[in-house]
Amino acid sequence: MVRFARGSAPWLLMPLVGALVLGYLAWRGTPWLRIPAVGLVLVWLFFLVFFRDPERTAAAGFASPADGKVRAIDQVDDPELGRVDRFSIFMSPKDVHVNRYPLDGTVVSVTHVPGGFVPAFKKEAERNERVVTVLDTAIGRIKVIQIAGTVARRIVPYHAAGDKAVKGERFGLIRLGSRCDILVPPGSVRWSAPVGQQVYAASSSIGEATPK
Fold first, then answer.
1. Angle between helices 34-50 and 9-27 (to 10 degrees)
2. Nearest one of 210, 201, 211, 212 to 63, comparing CA atoms
3. Which position among 25, 133, 186, 207 has the lowest Cβ density within 10 Å, counted as fewest Cβ atoms?
4. Dihedral, CA atoms, 84, 197, 89, 82, nearest 10 degrees?
5. Active-site positions?
């Protein structure tokens, strides 16, 4: 049975209903409406693929929180965590956009931060609309940041402060092209997935974590 992401129902229903209405009107005597009806069917088929949510088994080590290509591995200064290692994944429209916990832990906070909608692969995307999830884990406090892109303008969290984080379980959805950044204490993870590699949420191991 095909599973679809929580929070995707409106996107799946609207083009389908629109296509059915226009198809009916075309059948009743307005033939030119067949063209937009077919267009809506194509949109609906795209969303069927885009919002798929396959079952995954968590990999050993530090699991990828997202499907996509590794965009960058570097160090940055975070206002709360200080100097941190950052692992960044770019999600294209062809990737599954359901995000999953990379480690076991406890959710400390889930914060929505308003911002712009610059293409997610650009450096300026760090100021985009985003949701920041802070986790307490065996390697210390980490952040998983879901960043909206030009098309993706809605992030749907599935959790709240105090919830238990289980590696590989779903914690949110980003609609359409976007990015996911992970911030961890310096040297706490030995990254094994190089820049440019395709990774998959939960099922790809992207590094080895060193508990505190």
1. 160
2. 201
3. 186
4. 0
5. 178
Indicate the length of the chain as a whole number: 212
Which residue type is seen at 71?
R
pTM: 0.84
Asked if residue 106 lies in contact with residue 165, where contact means CB atoms within 8 angstroms, the answer is yes
**What is residue 136's three-state secondary structure?**
strand
User: 124 by DSSP, 3-state: which?
Assistant: helix
CA distance 63 to 53: 17
Q: Which amino acid is at 22?
A: L
pLDDT (tens, 9 = 90+) of the chain, 212 residues, equals 668 888 778 878 888 898 888 888 888 888 888 898 889 899 888 888 878 888 999 999 999 999 999 999 999 999 999 999 999 999 888 898 899 999 999 999 999 887 655 544 455 445 668 899 999 999 999 999 998 765 545 788 899 999 999 999 999 988 766 889 999 999 999 999 999 999 999 999 999 988 87
Give the whole-angstrom CA distance, residue 146 versus residue 91. Answer: 10
In whole angstroms, give the CA distance from residue 56 to residue 77: 32
The residue type at 129: E
